[in-house]
Amino acid sequence: MSLVSADMRRRIGPREFDFARQVAVMAIVNRTPDSFYDRGRTDALGAAVAAAHRAIGEGADWIDIGGAKFAPGPPVPVAEEVDRVVPVVAALAGSGAVLSVDTFQPEVARAAIAAGAHVVNDTTGLRDPAMADVVAETGVAVIVTHSLAAPRTPYPSPRYDDVVAEVGAFLRERVALAEARGVASDRIIVDPGHDLNKHTLDSLELTRRLDEVVALGYPTLVALSNKDFVGESLGRPREQRVEGSIAAAAYSVMRGARIVRVHNVRETVDAMRMLEAIEGWREPVFLEHNR
């Protein structure tokens, strides 16, 4: 029996997804000099746009564009964040990919939507309720993520009595806020926020019990790619976590996740498409062997 609700068909921007039997691969493109993984390799506009087109060519369904990371660091002025993300969104408009803006600033979200973004990816879980208003007014989709800290601020030694129950309760509360402010239920995606104000055992528990998050009834995104819980589980540095990240993504899909946010697009696309073929959700590309 499927862990995912039978009716999970969604139109997001230019794409239609049936999340009952389809996995969307979201590629990460950050215009930030202090980005977690690429360390500023796509900070320049041309590099960011080229990386996005390369990801689309490798099979990405979705491009997530960020101009200010959630992790601790000096504040990024709103005008500067707009200058980072809007030109990338505008350059990719018409590419056929879903475009999301990774921001917790309502003003940045509004500018990116005007440039062509289809989704707001808010890693603070709508900490600023004005973000829900922007989403409701524009009719885009929103990703509601669990985190505890104010953005760009440390939150040392987080502790949970039951991390999955507490993440689920947070997501239910923030989804209810979004719906109360006019966001349509079928425009909401949830993300349990692996490693965001959580230690490795928390993130492993969230992965193991991800079906409890999926049971909230909204498409579930997992952002696992190259994260520290993968590195600590395997004893691998950041540049050697691809295989562990793909294993975690595949496990999460089998527990009901339907959107995976990744740095290593080609490898993840192949893993997800193979999983879909094994499950009978899609046909093989061709059939020759022993025919």
CATH level 1 name: Alpha Beta
Alpha plus pi helix count: 10
**Spatial separation of the terminal alpha carbons:** 31 Å
CATH architecture: Alpha-Beta Barrel
Contiguous uncertain segments of 5+ residues:
none
Spatial strand arrangement across the major sheet: 8-7-6-5-4-3-10-9
Describe this structure in words.
With 291 residues, the protein is of the alpha/beta class. It has one domain: TIM Barrel, CATH 3.20.20.20. Helices cover 39% and strands 15% of the residues. It has ten helices and ten strands. It has helices at 45-57, 78-92, 106-115, 130-138, 163-180, 200-208, 210-214, 228-234, 242-254, 265-279, and strands at 9-12, 15-18, 24-30, 62-66, 98-102, 119-122, 141-145, 188-191, 221-222, 259-262. The strands form two sheets. It has an eight-stranded parallel β-sheet with strand order 8-7-6-5-4-3-10-9. Strands 1-2 form a two-stranded antiparallel ribbon. The model has no long low-confidence stretch (mean pLDDT 95).
